[in-house]
TrEMBL record:
<comment type="pathway">
    <text>Purine metabolism; IMP biosynthesis via de novo pathway; 5-amino-1-(5-phospho-D-ribosyl)imidazole from N(2)-formyl-N(1)-(5-phospho-D-ribosyl)glycinamide: step 1/2.</text>
</comment>
<comment type="subunit">
    <text>Part of the FGAM synthase complex composed of 1 PurL, 1 PurQ and 2 PurS subunits.</text>
</comment>
<keyword id="KW-0067">ATP-binding</keyword>
<dbReference type="InterPro" id="IPR003850">
    <property type="entry name" value="PurS"/>
</dbReference>
<dbReference type="InterPro" id="IPR036604">
    <property type="entry name" value="PurS-like_sf"/>
</dbReference>
<comment type="function">
    <text>Part of the phosphoribosylformylglycinamidine synthase complex involved in the purines biosynthetic pathway. Catalyzes the ATP-dependent conversion of formylglycinamide ribonucleotide (FGAR) and glutamine to yield formylglycinamidine ribonucleotide (FGAM) and glutamate. The FGAM synthase complex is composed of three subunits. PurQ produces an ammonia molecule by converting glutamine to glutamate. PurL transfers the ammonia molecule to FGAR to form FGAM in an ATP-dependent manner.</text>
</comment>
<keyword id="KW-0963">Cytoplasm</keyword>
<keyword id="KW-0658">Purine biosynthesis</keyword>
<dbReference type="GO" id="GO:0005524">
    <property type="term" value="F:ATP binding"/>
</dbReference>
<keyword id="KW-0436">Ligase</keyword>
<dbReference type="GO" id="GO:0005737">
    <property type="term" value="C:cytoplasm"/>
</dbReference>
<dbReference type="Pfam" id="PF02700">
    <property type="entry name" value="PurS"/>
</dbReference>
<protein>
    <recommendedName>
        <fullName>Phosphoribosylformylglycinamidine synthase subunit PurS</fullName>
        <ecNumber>6.3.5.3</ecNumber>
    </recommendedName>
</protein>
<comment type="similarity">
    <text>Belongs to the PurS family.</text>
</comment>
<dbReference type="GO" id="GO:0006189">
    <property type="term" value="P:'de novo' IMP biosynthetic process"/>
</dbReference>
<dbReference type="GO" id="GO:0004642">
    <property type="term" value="F:phosphoribosylformylglycinamidine synthase activity"/>
</dbReference>
<keyword id="KW-0547">Nucleotide-binding</keyword>
Length: 83
């Protein structure tokens, strides 16, 4: 079944303490070369049958109205994954 992925990230002006903690710990496990980390959320919405433009529009609406907090988060991507 195809899935629609909705990615949500904190707005750029919002502090991301989890991302900062991850960024501090990366060098401790031997991973270097990253200037920063931002942590977000990923939602997977399963669709029966073929994904339509209407499905994508509804997934974006769900992301903007339910899956994210629009005061501090943005929906940054809505995409389809075929299995």
């Amino acid at each position: 079944m195809p899935r629609i992925i909705v990615d949500v990230m904190p707005k750029p002006e919002i502090l991301d303490p989890q991302g900062k903690a991850i960024a501090r710990e990366l060098p401790q496990i031997g991973i270097d070369g990253f200037a920063g980390v931002r942590q977000g959320k990923r939602f997977e919405l399963t669709v029966e049958g073929e994904v339509t433009e209407a499905h994508l529009a509804e997934a974006r609406r769900a992301g903007e109205e339910l899956l994210s907090n629009p005061v501090i988060e943005d929906v940054v991507d809505v995409s389809v994954v075929e299995d």
